[in-house]
């Protein structure tokens, strides 16, 4: 029996949550012990009525929910959920398709294929590239680098999937000093080593210095992978991709671009100049759960060499042999059985359209500038980065004493205040507040009242 009331109850609780989301205190502090007290206890011997389970789950989880999907959450780079993407996600759960292969989920496989072609078009990447729907940019980096590892070793006559890395020709890995931590996690998991990398110096915005790359590449004889970045998590800056791509190519290396959020700038005519040269890379990682505002978890790996991508991922089982005429989603990702992530991505893209994606990205960047301008009006505020994208780094000056400690105190004060939520970071030796824009629902008014709360908090602490 389908319990319609149960599903209606869940929909109602979800809608109520979303209605209160904009007004909820953002990141209200909670004690883990109090969550354990209400949610914990031994597993019951007998089952509990599903409606009671859902009602109490919603009630007891509530104090520990962070309004990160709301308009005034500026921590990390999070993004919310577009209405169409969220609704498609509900259907995805109800349909419960195993989107691993075409046979078990034809609609999921075809929707992925369609969404993949839209993404290649939108981001202006090679139309023949392969796309995998992964959990996030971490696994997108992992998968792209696995394809890279396959290809650079195959060119050296080594089959890494069959033989592993023991005895293989050494693989050189080059990264910018500001490469994201997940690049190192991926390198560690791939046996390429977190600490074997060669690091290219960066400039004041965290961009890899292309003029320093030739010297580093000259030390790399044989298989080489270069990891560049589109969108620095602190400054939003882009590595000089055209130069990096040209240098990597003439060296015979593979270029992987981590564009977890920055790659979406390609969807905007006003911003795509940041990505000149990006299409000349060999693989790209990006997220759908950040700037595309698809619910967690959803990322995309894109590889210009489908054969290398598939060779790195494909696990062949005897019962899978046969006529693979259609695209099997698991050929392009590490998982075998998997959620049908394509539906929500498809729904997000279709509900926005090409223009809507561009507007979403441009609006976030405009709001970042609006925030920087609002804060800059105070003489006690210093904006540490060039606001070229969606990131703002802010330092607050105390009347006397250490600006680092004062900035830390302002961040804690803003978090307590609850109007907005921002985290802290250290940028080139300076402690700073980091403000990220990637939520579809953030408005000018949200930015203004958040800026006001930040300045009010700083003024109160200064007094
Ligand atoms: C967020 C981010 C990642 C990791 O992505 P997840 O989706 O959290 O796995 C990697 N690189 C950059 C630049 C990021 O911003």
Short description:
This protein has helices at residues 4-20, 32-39, 50-61, 83-95, 106-122, 137-155, 160-163, 181-189, 213-218, 241-251, 306-313, 342-376, 403-417, 444-462; strands at residues 130-134, 172-176, 198-200, 224-229, 254-258, 283-287, 299-303, 381-383, 391-396, 423-427, 430-436. The protein has 463 residues and is α/β, with parallel strands linked by helices. It has a seven-stranded mixed sheet with strand order 1-7-6-5-4-2-3, sandwiched between helices.
- What would the CATH topology of the largest domain be? Aspartate Aminotransferase, domain 2
Question: Roughly how many Å is the radius of gyration?
Answer: 23 Å
Q: What is the ordering of alpha helices and beta strands? A: HHHHHEHHEHEHEHEEEHHEEHEEH
Overall mean confidence score, pLDDT: 96
Helix content: 40-55%
CATH first level of the largest domain: Alpha Beta
The strand line-up of the biggest sheet is: 1-7-6-5-4-2-3
Q: Tell me the overall shape.
A: globular
């Amino acid at each position: 029996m389908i319990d319609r009331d149960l599903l209606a109850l869940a929909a109602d609780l979800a809608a109520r949550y979303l209605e209160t989301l904009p007004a909820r205190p953002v990141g209200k502090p909670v004690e883990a012990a109090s969550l354990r007290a209400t949610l914990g206890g031994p597993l019951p011997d007998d089952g509990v009525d599903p409606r009671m389970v859902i009602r109490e789950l919603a009630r007891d989880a509530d104090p520990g929910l962070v309004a990160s999907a709301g308009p005034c959450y500026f921590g990390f780079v999070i993004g919310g959920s577009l209405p169409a993407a969220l609704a498609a996600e509900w259907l995805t759960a109800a349909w419960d398709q195993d989107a691993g292969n075409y046979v078990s989920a034809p609609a999921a496989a075809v929707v992925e294929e369609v969404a993949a072609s839209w993404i290649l078009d939108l981001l202006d990447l090679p139309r023949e590239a392969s796309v995998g729907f992964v959990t996030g940019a971490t696994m997108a980096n992992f998968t792209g680098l696995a394809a890279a590892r396959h290809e650079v070793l195959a060119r050296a006559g080594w089959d890494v999937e069959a033989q592993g890395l023991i005895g293989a020709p050494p693989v050189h890995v080059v990264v910018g000093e500001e490469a994201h931590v997940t690049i190192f996690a991926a390198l560690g998991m791939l046996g390429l080593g977190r600490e074997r990398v060669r690091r290219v110096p960066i400039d004041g915005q965290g961009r890899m210095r292309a003029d320093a790359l030739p010297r580093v590449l000259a030390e790399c004889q044989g298989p080489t992978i270069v990891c560049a970045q589109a969108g620095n998590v602190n400054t939003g800056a882009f590595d000089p991709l055209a130069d990096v791509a040209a240098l990597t190519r003439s060296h015979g290396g593979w270029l992987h671009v981590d564009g977890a959020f920055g790659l979406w700038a390609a969807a905007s005519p006003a911003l795509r100049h940041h990505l000149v040269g990006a299409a000349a890379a060999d693989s790209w990682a990006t997220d759908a759960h950040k700037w595309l505002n698809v619910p967690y978890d959803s990322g995309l790996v894109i590889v210009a060499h489908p054969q290398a991508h598939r060779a790195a991922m494909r696990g062949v089982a005897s019962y899978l042999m046969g006529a693979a005429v259609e695209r099997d989603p698991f050929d392009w990702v590490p998982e075998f059985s998997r959620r049908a992530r394509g539906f929500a991505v498809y729904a997000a893209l279709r509900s926005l359209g090409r223009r809507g994606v561009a507007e979403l990205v441009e609006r976030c960047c405009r709001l970042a500038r609006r925030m920087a301008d609002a804060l800059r009006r105070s003489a006690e505020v210093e904006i540490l980065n060039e606001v070229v994208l969606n990131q703002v780094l802010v330092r607050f000056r105390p009347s006397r004493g250490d600006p680092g400690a004062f900035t830390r105190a302002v961040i804690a004060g803003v978090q307590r205040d609850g109007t907005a939520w921002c985290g802290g970071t250290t940028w080139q030796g300076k402690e700073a507040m980091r403000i990220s824009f990637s939520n579809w629902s953030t408005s000018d008014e949200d930015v203004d009242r958040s800026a006001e709360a930040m300045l009010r908090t700083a003024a109160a602490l200064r007094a």
